[in-house]
Amino acid sequence: DQQVKQNSPSLSVQEGRISILNCDYTNSMFDYFLWYKKYPAEGPTFLISISSIKDKNEDGRFTVFLNKSAKHLSLHIVPSQPGDSAVYFCAAQAFNDYKLSFGAGTTVTVRA
Amino acid sequence: NAGVTQTPKFRILKIGQSMTLQCTQDMNHNYMYWYRQDPGMGLKLIYYSVGAGITDKGEVPNGYNVSRSTTEDFPLRLELAAPSQTSVYFCASSPGVPGEQFFGPGTRLTVL
User: Fold this and answer.
1) Contact between chains at B105 and A104 (C-beta distance less than 8 A)
2) What pLDDT does residue B33 have?
3) Is the CB of A42 less than 8 angstroms away from the CB of B105?
4) Is A30 exposed, middle or buried (0-12, 13-18, 19+ CB in 10 A)?
5) Are residues A50 and A73 in contact, defined by beta-carbon separation less than 8 angstroms?
């Protein structure tokens, strides 16, 4: 049972424009959410996170928005750069739980 | 700091063979994890450990075993390899909960 869903397997965006990645979850116990970025033949690297007590968190070009009532979060990348081309995974964690539940990933391609 | 290291990077096994995937972290993290990633899927948790001597099953533990004798090392053992275990395996560690997990570069395993 997939508790974290990324319904768009791929996204193509022009350099300089905004990339918006979406993620939905079903488990109401999740209260901490993370985005990871993964290049081919490498492990995932942490990008940004958000706690359920917030609805927005920014870090440079990356902003994550959380809508708890809709069980939805999104990652905005502005402006998109060629080095942003990668697979992005959404992950969620319940309070005091060690485990992360991952979505299937969205492959972002930034076109020059 | 090397972070999380995994060996080997690649391995081909025959059905029924056994092997151990090595994972070491130098960040003194208590929590360690093993994931597998199949094509087009998110990461699925195999086993995790909250400290030396303590391990527990994740979502997909069948066919695998782990041990945690030191804080640094968390090897994953495959007994009687099967084609269904063809995957990319990632080891990760974290300092606490909630919070980001730090991933190794992965081991690509093929069982023929």
Assistant:
1) no
2) 97
3) yes
4) buried
5) yes
Q: Which residues of B touch A (CB under 8 A)?
A: 4, 31, 33, 35, 40-45, 48, 50, 58, 90, 92, 94, 97-106
Answer whether B90 sits within 8 Å of A46, measured CB to CB.
Answer: no
Give the position of tokens 């069948």: B62
Question: Hey, of A2, A4, A6, A100, which one would you mutate to test binding to chain B, going by the most B CBs within 10 A of its CB?
Answer: A100
What span, in angstroms and rounded, lies between the C-alpha atoms of B8 and B106?
9
Is the pLDDT assigned to residue B1 strictly greater than 90? no
pLDDT value of position A97 = 85
- Report the distance separating Cα A62 and Cα A42, nearest Å: 21
B59-93 pLDDT, tens digit each: 999 999 999 999 999 999 998 999 999 999 999 99
Chain A interface, best mutation among B37, B38, B45, B49, by max A CB count within 10 A: B37
Distance from C-alpha of A38 to C-alpha of B90, rounded to nearest angstrom: 12
Helix, strand, coil shares, percent, chain A, to 5: 5, 55, 40
User: Token digits for B74?
Assistant: 């968390």
The number of beta carbons lying within 10 Å of the beta carbon of residue B111 is 19
